[in-house]
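QA checklist item 7 of 12: single-chain prediction sanity check.
[x] sequence parsed
[x] length recorded as 318
[x] structure emitted
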Amino acid sequence: MEIRNQTQVVEFIFLGFSGIAYGHMYLFLAFLAIYLVTVLGNLMIFIMIQLDSHLHTPMYYFLSHLSCLDICISSVTVPKILVNFLCQQQTISYNQCMAQMFFLMSFTGTEAALLAIMAYDRYAAICKPLHYSHLINTKLCILLAFATWLWGFLNSALHTALSSRLFFCGVNQIPHIFCDVPPLLTISCNDAHINEMTLRIASLFVAGGPFFFIILSYVFILSSILKIRSTTGKRKAFSTCTSHLIVVIIYYGNGLLNYDRPSAGYSLETDTLVSTMYCIITPMVNPLIYSLRNKEMKGALKKFLEGQRKFKHLQSIS
């Protein structure tokens, strides 16, 4: 009982921005702008997919889930960062830390699985076009989407349960900008061997499994594209995959830097940059990639803006 009293921590202090003595208001405005672009961009994609009947296809159904996930990932981390900038103290309570870690790992784990499902959708569309409607039907889409969310939440529940058993011996300074498993393990004073082993095994299955599936899908996709005789046909087939492929590279590239860091770790500045790229910048970039590189999305956006213009014009007349 005495050990518990000595190791109880009720509040953590983030060290990620501790080296910045001035300019917190500029950082607040920068992160607020990023957050607004992220939420509005992903929300616009979600709304356009719901309103435009031409986008009621499996690919855009999964894209709407990706947009929701990007809003959720950004909303788990950025609002707390903004509040801390305003208060000029980088703190978070123990319970808030556990909750933030749970939802962050849930959403990032779900996104890893969802990107794999989107790769399967592209595989079915390019490699099995005649059987596409049979392989990817409405019932299966709903089931796969539910499975990806369940996948992320079960993985996160395991890590959160293990992390809640850690002791910190009065050390409450986290070398990070939000609560996550790796930085908490670095300040834990009890044996975290089980947590570290679980994190590596989970990374192998939760992130490595979907990534291997994506690679395998694109091997078959590339093989099918190379069999197409016309250059135009090859370009058209590959163009349907480029947005997804870019998102996968950005997501897994940043995820690899964030979780599979060297044993010596990064410097605090590098760690802050990597974390910002992974959980704050990436959700903002995804809607830009899909809207700028996708003809159907650009067409839907144009129709949406024209509709808004006509609506305002009718309002002004009335």
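[x] summary fact logged: The beta strands are 11-14, 91-93, 173-174.
[ ] second reviewer sign-off
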